[in-house]
Design goal:
Blueprint lengths: L5 E6 L3 E9 L5 E10 L3 E2 L1 E2 L2 H19 L5 E6 L4 E17 L2 H11 L6 E13 L4 E2 L6 E15 H10 L6 E6 H9 L2 H4 L3 E6 L4 E7 L2 E8 L3 H12 L4 H8 L11 E6 L2 E6 H25 L10 E4 L9 H9 L3 E3 L13 H19 L12
Parallel strand pairs: 1-6, 6-11, 12-17, 17-18
Antiparallel strand pairs: 1-2, 2-3, 4-5, 7-10, 8-9, 8-10, 12-13, 13-14, 15-16
Helix pairs in contact: 4-10, 6-7, 6-8, 8-9
């Protein structure tokens, strides 16, 4: 890749994307090349690793052809389904009052690292630091104190995910580095000042979704569940006897969950026009949204001690985009404001682009930090 460019692999629950890009001014992203392929998806594990490999090979080949360059290093976004985020408190005391150094942060992180069976540690980030005089700071380096407290996050990638990736790339001579995709989206999409007081991100995909409770540059709690747009489409197919999945997806975009006077009208399907009861369609979609919300609403109730009572849920991902009234219905289920969030970039300002944009941004930051430091962890959330 070019000197300032990074290559990322964005693994979603129904498609994979390889993108090469770099960060522009004001954290904009400039793409040199990008290619997306569908594959079999996953439910706790990949359904068909051969199809996954074929999709990734096609993406790599296309991007290398467009850029006329070989990919030597690839940042792999690990979806929430395959990530465990573990928060830990760490304290360090000093013999006397002195300036806090980078090595003190390294020691703080390394002292909290643990082995998690069946997973590997891929990243460590900080949520908050507090000095002896109760100063809460993002970066304590250079401050004087007799102690340092850190609320830290450790991200573990499941070994079966890493093994699948390493098998695919075994003969390609490409170095793989892993990034937690949900963290990348949270830190890119949600402003830092919002994350300083806790924030909630729901990434709704095609067949898998996840919720993260984030604080600062880290994650307090995270959960994934195998629900998404595919479950909504399946309900529509079953209710209306539709045999084509793409027809069901198109019908979802015509649903309006709170429209008055919705009745029966003709809708074109691949096998011919069909009379559709749009009032019934709205109820079917609402039931499907309830299925998506249920595990995440229970999860957020369990997080009541984390100052989340009045925090909105920020929703991103391809799963709910285009379904009119979906956010309003979910707000009722979550009993909190629900807002769609997407990259604030021309041409890329849709929720479906959130993961690849955020991964390129995080990978670009890591790539540049590696040039200047050998530390394993840093305060801005990057493994170095």
């Amino acid at each position: 890749m070019g000197r300032g460019s990074v290559a990322v692999l964005d693994v979603r629950s129904a498609e994979v994307t390889v993108a090469v890009g770099e960060r522009g001014v004001n954290r904009t992203i400039v793409f040199n090349a990008s290619h997306t392929e569908s594959y079999g998806g996953y439910f706790h594990r990949f359904f068909d690793e051969d199809k996954l490999a074929e999709a990734i090979y096609a993406c790599i080949s296309s991007v290398e052809r467009i850029t006329s360059r070989r990919i030597r290093k690839l940042y792999v976004g690990v979806p929430g389904e395959f990530v465990t985020a573990v928060p830990r408190d760490r304290n360090a005391g000093f013999p006397k009052r002195r300036k806090i150094r980078a090595g003190d942060l390294d020691a703080l992180f390394e002292g909290g690292a643990r082995v998690l069976e069946g997973s590997r540690l891929i990243r460590g980030t900080s949520m908050i630091y507090v000095t002896a005089d109760n100063r809460r700071v993002v970066d304590p380096i250079g401050l004087t104190s007799t102690s340092l407290y850190g609320l830290l996050s450790y991200y573990y990638c499941r070994e079966d995910f890493a093994a699948a990736m390493e098998k695919i790339f075994a003969k390609m001579k490409i170095e793989l580095l892993y990034l937690p995709a949900d963290l990348a989206m949270a830190t890119y999409l949600i402003p830092a000042e919002t994350r300083d007081e806790c924030a909630i991100l729901l990434d709704c995909g095609e067949a898998s979704s996840s919720v993260s409770v984030v604080l600062g540059g880290g994650t307090l709690a995270q959960i994934a569940h195998p629900v998404g747009r595919a479950q909504l489409a399946a309900r529509v197919m079953q209710t209306f006897g539709i045999g084509d999945y793409s027809d069901a997806l198109r019908l979802l975009t015509r649903a309006n969950l709170f429209a008055k006077g919705a009745g029966t009208r003709e809708f074109p399907l691949s096998d011919g026009p069909r009379e559709i009861d749009f009032r019934l369609l709205a109820e079917v979609v609402k039931d499907g949204l309830d299925e998506i919300c249920e595990p995440f609403a229970a999860f957020l109730e369990d997080c009541t001690g984390r100052d989340l009572e009045f925090r909105p849920v920020y929703v991103t991902g391809e799963g709910l985009f285009g379904i009119r009234g979906a956010l309003e219905h979910m707000s009722k289920r979550f009993s909190r404001v629900t807002e769609m969030i997407a990259p604030d970039l021309p041409y890329y300002n849709t929720p479906a682009m959130s993961s690849r944009i955020a991964l390129v941004d995080m990978a670009y930051e890591d790539h540049n930090e590696r040039k200047f430091s050998k530390r394993f962890f840093n305060t801005s959330g990057g493994s170095i």
